[in-house]
Amino acid sequence: MVSFRRTLAIPLRQFYLMQGSPARVLPMFAWVAIDMITWGFITKYLNAVSGSGFNFVPSLLGAVLLWDFFVRVMQGVTTAFFEDVWSRNFLNIFATPLSIPEYVGGLMLSSIASGVIGLSVMLVLATAVFGLSFFVYGILLIPYLLVLFVFGIALGVIGCGIVLRLGPASEWLIWPIPALISPLAGVFYPLSTLPAWMRGLARLLPPSYVFESMRGIVLKRAGSPVSLLWAAALDIAFLLLASWFFSYIYHHAVRTGLIARYSAESLS
Amino acid sequence: MIPAVLSVRELRKRYRDTVAVDGVSFEVNRNEIVGLLGPNGAGKTTTINMILGVLEPTSGAIVVDGLDLAKKRSQVLARTNFAAVYAPLPGNLTVLQNLRFFGLIYGVKNLPARIEVLLEQFDLLSFRDTKCGVLSSGEQTRVSLAKALLNNPRLLLLDEPTASLDPSVAREIRVKIRDFAAQGEGGVLWTSHNMYEVADVCHRVLFLSKGKILLEGDPRTLPAEHGKETLEDLFVALAREPLALERV
User: Fold this and answer.
1) pLDDT score of A92 more than 70
2) How many domains are contained in chain B?
3) B74 and B194 part of one domain
4) In the predicted model, is pLDDT for residue A221 greater than 70?
5) Is residue B162 part of a domain?
C-alpha cells in the first residue's frame, strides 16, 4: 500500500535543501525571469517592425511562458532525483520501505512546487511588464497547463530512468531534452512550417497540440477541444510509458547490483 | 521457540560467470550480534546488499521477523536498518533534517521525541543544525548509527561501522550497539576487519570465503578449536588457505 507520509518525505527533503541553498532557489526565479524579459522585448520589437497590427505578445510570449512551465516541471522531477545522485544516497534511500511508486510520487510532488513558483514569476512579469493577458486563451489555459504538466512529469521520470541506467555523468543527456524536442513541439511556429516527416513526429508530442490550439485561439479566437483530447490521451500514454520505463530500469539495477555500486557508472 | 530475526536460506548471487555468494544459510537471533567475517571479495557486502533489498538474489530466501523479503519488501525493510561506512547520509542536510527525512520514510511513530532520544544517546545535540558534510568521520558515523536506530529495527546491519573511527569513539559505538542488542528485541549482523572488535562484540561469527560460509562459532573459542591462538590468526589462515578448514 502506498504511504503518503513516505511520499511526502521527498518534497520535504527538497524544501530543506532549498532552505539552506540560495544556489538552488535563485535558478527557480532567475531563468524564467530572464526568458520572460528577453522574449518580452523581442515580441515588442516584432510588434513595432511588422506593422501588421498583429500582436505577437499572446502567441510568442505566451508560448515561451507555457514552454518554460513544462521545462520547470520536468526539471523539478529530475532535479529532485539528481539530489540522490549528487549526494550518493541511493543505498540509503532504496534500502528503506519506500516503494518505487512512492519515490516517483515524491519526485512529482517536488516538481509541482518548482513548476508553480516558476509559473507565478512568469505570470507576474508577462502580465505586469509586457501586458500579456491570459484571458485571451480563456478557460483552455487550464487544460493547456495540465497537458504540459503531465508531459513534463512523464519526460522527467524517463530522464531519471536514463540516469539511473547510464550513471551520474548521463545527467548531461537530460538537461538538453526540452531544447531537443522544442522544434517538434511547434512552440514558436505552426506545425505546417515543418516538413512532413517532422510533422509526423510532432503529432506524437502532446505539447504540439497545445501550441497549435493556442495559436488557433490567438488568430481565430477558436480553440480545438478535440486536439486537446488527443494531447490528454498522449499524455496518459507517456505517463504509463515513463512509469513502466523507470520501474524496468530500477528492477534491472536491483538485479545487476547497479544501485549498490551506482557511482561506478558500470553499464552492465 | 522464538523465531530468528533474520533467516537466510541457500542464498546465491551469480554475475554472469562469477558466483559472488554461493548457497549461504545462516540465522541471526533476537538479542544476538553475529559477525560476518571474510577477506575482501568474500561476499560479505553482497550478502548485506541482498538482505537490504538493493540486490536481487539469483536464488534463495531472506526472511526477516517472519516476513519474506521477496514478497513483503516494504514491511521487511521497515523492520530493518543499516549503517555502512560507504553510505554516509547526505552531507547537504543537517543532522536533524536527515533524521526527519529518514524517520518519515521509516514511518517512525512520535518522530520528534525519537529523534531527541537518539541525538542525546549519540551525543549529537550540539550538531543538530549542522550539515552532515562538515562533521568529522566519527560524528558522521554517529549520525549514521542514529539513523540506523530510528525505527528501532528488528534487524540491524552494520557494515564496518567503526572503520574510520579512533579507538575511543569505536569503543563507545561498540557499547551502544551491545546495549541495543541486549535491551531490545532486535539482532545485529556486523561485518568488520577488526578481529579484536569482533571477539569483543559478537556472540557468534560466520567466516565467509569465496561466497561460502566456511566456519561458524563463538569468536572466543573458535580459534583454539582450529589450533590458532587468536581470531586474527584464524582469519589469516582462512583467507590464505580456505580449503584447509571445513565448516563446523
Assistant:
1) yes
2) 2
3) yes
4) no
5) no
Cα A262 vs. chain centroid, distance in angstroms? 26
Same domain, B2 and B75: yes
Evaluate whether residue B139 is within a structural domain: yes
Give the number of other CB atoms < 10 A from CB of residue B242.
Answer: 19
Residues B69 and B87 in one domain: no
Spatial contact of A158 and A76, defined as CB atoms under 8 Å apart: no
Any domain includes B213 = yes
- Per-residue pLDDT tens for B143-156? 999 999 999 999 99
Residue A234's identity, in one-letter code, is L
CB-based contact, A20 to chain B, within 8 Å: yes
| CA separation for the pair B48, B24 (Å, rounded) | 12
Element (DSSP H or E) covering residue B23: strand B18-28
Angle at alpha carbon of residue B184, lines to B180 and B189, rounded to 5°: 55
Determine the length of chain B.
248
The Cα A163–Cα A156 span in angstroms is 11
What lies within 8 Å, CB to CB, of B193 at 6+ separation is B37, B160, B163
Quote the DSSP letter at residue B64.
E
- For A137-141, what is the mean pLDDT? 78
Residue in A with minimal Cα distance to B129: A20
Print burial letters for A19-56: b (CB count within 10 Å at least 16), e (below 16).
Answer: eeeeebeeebeebbbebbeebbeebbebbeeeeeeebb
Q: Which one-letter amino acid corresponds to residue A140?
A: L
Of A16, A93, A251, the CB nearest to B93: A16
Select from B45, B54, B74 the residue whose CB has the most chain A CBs within 10 Å, as the one to mutate to test that interface. Answer: B54
Q: Is residue A201 within 8 Å of residue A184, measured between CB atoms?
A: yes
Say whether both B129 and B7 belong to one domain.
no
Do residue B10 and residue B56 come from a single domain?
yes
CA–CA gap between residue B103 and residue A195 (Å, rounded): 54
Confidence category of residue B242, pLDDT binned at 50, 70, 90: low
Beta bridge partners of B215: B207
B144 shares its domain with B91: yes
Q: What is the CATH number of the domain that holds B188?
A: 3.40.50.300
Domain range spanning residue B21? Answer: 1-79+184-248
Residue A88: list chain B partners with CB under 8 A.
87-88
* Buried b / exposed e along A217-240 (16+ C-beta atoms within 10 A): bbeeeebbeebbeebbebbeebbe
**Residue B179 domain-assigned?**
no
Average pLDDT for chain B? 91
Q: Cell numbers 513534463 label which residue?
A: A152
Residue A57's pLDDT is: 81
CB-CB: which of A8, A95, A259 is closest to B77?
A95
Question: What ipTM was estimated for this complex?
Answer: 0.90
CA-to-CA dists, residue B92 to A242, B17, B135, B144, angstroms: 29, 40, 11, 14
The verdict on B28 and B142 lying in the same domain is no
